[in-house]
Amino acid sequence: MTAKFFLPILLSSFGLAACGGSDNDTLPQLAAAQPATIANCATLSGFSFARTTIASASVVAAGTLSNAGQPVGEHCLVVGRMNERISAVDGQNYAIGFQMRLPKDWSGRFLYQANGGTDGNVAVADGGSAIGSGGLLRNGLQMGFAIISSDAGHSSAQNPLFGLDPQARLDYGYTAVGTLTPMAKALVKEAYGKAPDRSYIAGTSNGGRHAMVAASRYADAFDGVLATSPGINLPRAAVGNLSNVKRWATVTTIRVVNGLPDYESALPKAEREVVASAILDKCDALDGLKDGLVQDIEACREAFAPLRDIPACAGARDGSCLSATQKTVIAAVFSPARNRVGDAIYSGFPFDAGIVQTDWAEWKFRNSLRTARNPVCVGYMFSSPPVSDLGMATDTSKTAAFALNFDIDTDGGKIFATSGIYTESAISFMTPPNATKLDTLRNRGAKMVVVHGASDAIFSVDDTQAWYQGLDTYHRGRASEFARFFRVPGMGHSRGGPATDQYDALSALVAWVEQGKAPERIVASARGAGNVGGVNSELPAGWSAQRSRPLCPYPQVARYQSGDSEVASSFACRP
Ligand SMILES: [Ca+2]
Question: 126-148 b/e with 16+ CB inside 10 Å = b?
Fold first, then answer.
């Protein structure tokens, strides 16, 4: 007995109490949500909350919205905004715009739908694409969630130059979630006569980042967190991507299209197929089945070497091989982006057959040129001080020049900096503080599911894997008791590619949070011909239209056992 009570004191005296969960505690089981029915939609127009304006509250009839060919049920749409203000920087009006959709028949659950991209747009609060997966068969409204969606503090017209306003930066980074959530829960209480029994946050890409940040900053507010393709280190990812433009430029064959370089000519689809074939030759069978999917990503790291295994051109490039310089460029682009002193600014990427997809090229090539993507994100939103020439907001030739001349030290270093009125660095406002120390979330019984495509070209699955490994280390090898990480072979950024990319991770999360059913696997399907959620045009010939695979919690891998090779039940999740 003495020893039992002495141990925590001893650990504490050595400073170990700061580590994650001890070895003998049991996590609390949260109670399941209970349904309720909305009392009166129209009266919600009179809802009162600090610094909140309700513009409208109106009933949306069943069938007005639909998803996967199914009508969405009757719900109440509440539109409003919070924290209206005039910026001292640009004199513009800012507010955190939102909409809430409250189903008539409510499950008792609240969902914060975290949106993607650079926000600035109140996406329909149906809990659809934000949840992740390609083509959901049921969205959040159909599942009975009361859902909020927001623009995260700026309008689409204020994209991307909202980044010059320090408060708009913070709202985009994290404070919009922190500001809206208490209001949304109060509105739910007014609508249904009780606050949400259980609360969730889910998002994809930047929305996945919002969810990861919430797990760290707002762990008391959410019982379940779903992050798909999360940009955990989004500013670093954008810098890493831009730092590779110079490399691509050395092997670009089409110098100018519509006044801009065609970076995809550095590695067009035919040559990406050569790379994918070389990867599959070495790695496809390592999971027990040659099926066009590399499940055993770790074994593939050992088995595949780009310089050795990608066919080299004897003469000129002809689409069946890569030049020696191309191979060197690929090896560099897939390696961690490093500054001049050798520090990794961003993770590397695993080699995976999904490199063939169109979306891979979008992120690696064209989004480095676009006025809405990497250059303006880094230049206006993440750099302190921001880039002073505002021309990149509208002039693609300027974004292209910024990308081609981007210096990972002098330009990239500004994401770590503060300057004048920009008192928080992008690393501070965009990334989760203490990302692996999720004691608050864990100890209250909340759960977390993270899903990432192995061929995501902008946010690396390896970055998310490194986060999960850090989480597990901090939580003494017991992270899987409250957080699980699923890799999706072949899938690109959020969806698509030669992959089984249709799955319902949100229902898996709810079952874990409310019933204690930890997800030992999540079944994912290919979206072949006839899929009502939307057909994936990039599925290889030879796959069954309904091919299914288990997504396995890291570090487990879907390994073929026996039986029909097109169905998930023929696979086991194993180390
Ligand atoms: Ca395989």
Answer: bbbbbbbbbbbbbbbbbbbbbbb
493 is catalytic: yes
For 303-311, the CB contacts below 8 A with 24+ separation are 304/278, 304/279, 304/351, 306/275, 306/278, 306/330, 306/331, 306/334, 306/351, 307/331, 309/278, 309/279, 309/281, 309/282, 310/274, 310/275, 310/278, 311/274, 311/278
Give me the catalytic one of 149, 150, 205, 347. Answer: 205
75 catalytic residue (yes or no): no
Ligand 1 centroid vs 287 CA: distance in angstroms? 5
Q: Known catalytic residue: 105?
A: no
Locate the domains of the chain by residue range. Answer: 34-204, 237-428
Residue from 304, 280, 277 nearest 294 by CA: 280
Cα 453 to ligand 1 centre (Å): 15
Q: From the CA of 288, how far away is ligand 1's center (Å)?
A: 6
For ligand 1, the distance from its centroid to the CA atom of residue 293, given in whole angstroms, is 4
Cα 388 to Cα 419: distance, rounded to the nearest angstrom:
13
Instruction: Read off the pTM.
Output: 0.95
- Active-site residue among 223, 287, 456, 462? 456
Q: Scanning the structure block, which residue is given the tokens 């730092």?
A: 243
pLDDT tens by residue, 224-256: 999 999 999 999 999 999 999 999 999 999 878
Q: What is the mean pLDDT of residues 173-182?
A: 98
